[in-house]
From TrEMBL:
Keyword Cell membrane tagged: no
Protein name per UniProt: Formin-like protein
TM annotation in the entry: none
Family listed: Belongs to the formin-like family. Class-II subfamily.
Coiled coil spans: 264-291
UniProt keyword list: Coiled coil
FH2 domain residues: 1-289
Claim: Protein biosynthesis is one of the keywords in the record: no
Length: 297
């Protein structure tokens, strides 16, 4: 375990002497005790061959576990979200209901016998009014489901990881994966180069060998997961009949999150309207009973 944290190592890297400073100190033949504290510090660092390279490797080693864990968590979130969406029977039934509604609305037109719809059409449900113009299609959809298939109203509970996945950008994950691979390459390079350092780097090499064995296995596992996630991310767009090149994972999840939130909002608004109507009917009934009572009196 390191006695230095990453910030301390990064600060040491910043204070490493430049090539010019190293050359100047190498050529200095005077009394070293007469040098300033900074120069004396440089001289101590220069006793370690390629000190900056070793410190960078050291910094990578310190942050490696955290980097890998964060990347693995994000990759797993994408996998989980993709699986949840594709395996949700409730979501599938809702999509089928939306298609049926769309065909009913477009009856008699060329679009009245569609076998599917573009995913971004889901976002128009809250903008489109039903024929009576009193409610949006989203409200009507929720009302219909409430009456005919109430068990579908909580479909959002199937999609536990969707919102978290929608905040993840695959491009950034690719960059993180690349950074880990490059970091590991530098560890391998420094380990190979330090063989010629002699006894001064013996402890460093032993520690690095141990780290490298575990890290390489970890990265192999991560690469496998990363490849799997790439395939699954593309399959999500394909599941909805979209081209992953035109409608990438980020767009699919973003649309679905917005749809889920619009659905929940309309569902809750409908429930409040039903409750208000129920209370109104109760009040009207009470008034009618009071009026009838007065007449009888």
């Amino acid at each position: 375990m390191s006695v230095l944290d990453n910030d301390q190592v990064e600060n040491l890297i910043k204070f490493c002497p430049t090539k010019e400073e190293i050359e100047m100190l190498k050529n200095y033949n005077g009394n070293k005790e007469m040098l300033g504290k900074c120069e004396q510090f440089f001289l101590e660092l220069m006793k370690v061959p390629r000190v900056e390279s070793k410190l960078r490797v050291f910094a990578f080693r310190i942050t490696f576990s955290t980097q890998v864990e964060e990347l693995r968590t994000n990759l797993t979130t994408i996998n989980d979200a993709t699986k949840e969406v594709k395996e949700s029977l409730k979501l599938r039934q809702i999509m089928q209901t939306i298609l049926t509604l769309g065909n009913a609305l477009n009856q008699g037109t060329a679009r009245g016998s569609a076998v599917g719809f573009r995913l971004d059409s889901l976002l128009k449900l809250s903008d489109t009014r039903a024929r009576n113009n009193k409610m949006t299609l989203m409200h009507y959809l929720c009302k219909l489901l409430s009456e005919k298939m109430p068990e579908l109203l909580d479909f959002d509970k199937d999609l536990i990881h969707l919102e978290a996945a929608s905040k993840i950008q695959l491009k950034l994950l690719a960059e993180e994966m690349q950074a880990i691979n490059k970091g590991l390459e530098k560890v391998e390079q420094e380990l190979a180069t330090s063989v010629n350092d002699g006894a001064i780097s013996f402890g460093f090499r032993e520690a690095l060998k141990s780290f490298l064995d575990a890290a390489e296995a970890e990265v192999r596992s991560l690469i496998s997961l990363y490849s799997e996630v790439g395939r699954n991310a593309d399959s999500l767009a394909q599941y909805f009949g979209e081209d992953p090149a035109r409608c990438p994972f980020e767009q699919v999840t973003s649309i679905l999150v917005i749809f889920v939130n619009m659905f929940k909002k309309s569902r809750d608004e409908n429930a409040r309207s039903v409750e208000l109507e129920r209370k109104k009917l109760e009040k009207d009934k009470e008034k009618a009973n009071l009026s009838a009572k007065k007449v009888l009196e």
